[in-house]
Design brief:
Layout (H helix, E strand, L loop, with lengths): L9 H11 L3 H27 L4 H61 L12 H24 L4 H37 L9 H58 L1
Helix pairs in contact: 1-4, 2-3, 3-4, 3-6, 4-5, 5-6
Length: 260
């Protein structure tokens, strides 16, 4: 049984905080919202100079136009943040992969200690899903939660819920992905080698030559699949936001055209 909590440390929280950088959410909104607010004000000034509409109608048109432009900027800022969050999640998965390899390395070192003292016993090794799930749930997720809730006090919990939903999907993927290879390894170690002499030596040799490479290779492939999964999620999540942003911009242009 691996104690994953021992891999928690202040450095991980700092690294995850640097990777996620949740404060850029407000930066993206401010930049895009500011740009389109300026565009909206300029459009209103042009409208004042060229429109022959009554004052009330003109004032209403100007307010609606400015609102449409500001909201377009907010939506584009949200879309830009989704792109940034997708990039951050890719980096979190890379960092997760590093921690997983550290766990595997520690298991390998513990195997050397067991090798010199174990005789006539069945060997139980952590599976790939157990390692990946343990690292995500006990090491990475608490650091991400701390990052969001500290840097985004108003919406941090909401964004972390979105992140948790994504993580749940990653864990389901892990369970399916590692099921076959974990069973093959377990059967080989506890089945094939349980009847031979010097059972403490033979399975451990097998572990070093087969289990470690398989788990490492499986982890690399899983992280690759997880990254593609993240990309698809953010692509489809950002499409409606981008669509509405373009729709609001088109509505603004149409309103200005008919008001002039």
């Amino acid at each position: 049984m691996i104690d994953f909590k021992k891999y928690r440390n202040p450095e991980i929280i700092t690294n995850i905080s640097d990777i996620m950088d949740p404060s850029c959410f407000f930066v993206k909104l401010a930049i895009w919202g500011g740009i389109f607010t300026i565009i909206g004000i300029i459009a209103d000034i042009l409208l004042i100079k060229s429109s022959d509409q009554e004052v009330i109608i003109h004032a209403l048109t100007s307010v609606i136009l400015l609102f449409l432009m500001i909201f377009s900027g907010v939506l584009l800022g949200t879309h830009a943040y989704f792109r940034q969050l997708n990039h951050s999640m890719q980096n979190v998965l890379d960092y997760t992969n590093n921690v997983v390899h550290q766990v595997i390395q520690d298991v390998s070192q513990s195997i050397d200690m067991v090798k010199s003292s174990t005789e006539n016993c069945r060997i139980t090794l952590p599976g790939g899903n157990e390692i990946v799930s343990g690292v995500l749930l006990d090491v990475i997720n608490p650091a991400v939660k701390n990052c969001f809730e500290n840097k985004l006090p108003l919406i941090g919990k909401l964004i972390f819920k979105i992140y948790s939903t994504i993580t749940t999907g990653l864990l389901k993927m892990s369970s399916v992905f590692f099921a076959k290879v974990d069973k093959q390894i377990d059967d080989a170690i506890n089945g094939q080698f349980s009847k031979v002499k010097n059972v403490a030596e033979r399975p451990l040799n097998f572990i070093e030559s087969t289990w470690l490479p398989k788990i490492k290779d499986g982890t690399e492939k899983y992280i690759g699949k997880a990254k593609n999964y993240i990309k698809r999620i953010f692509f489809f999540a950002s499409l409606p936001v981008l669509f509405f942003a373009i729709a609001f911009i088109a509505a603004s242009a149409s309103l200005m055209y008919f008001a002039m």
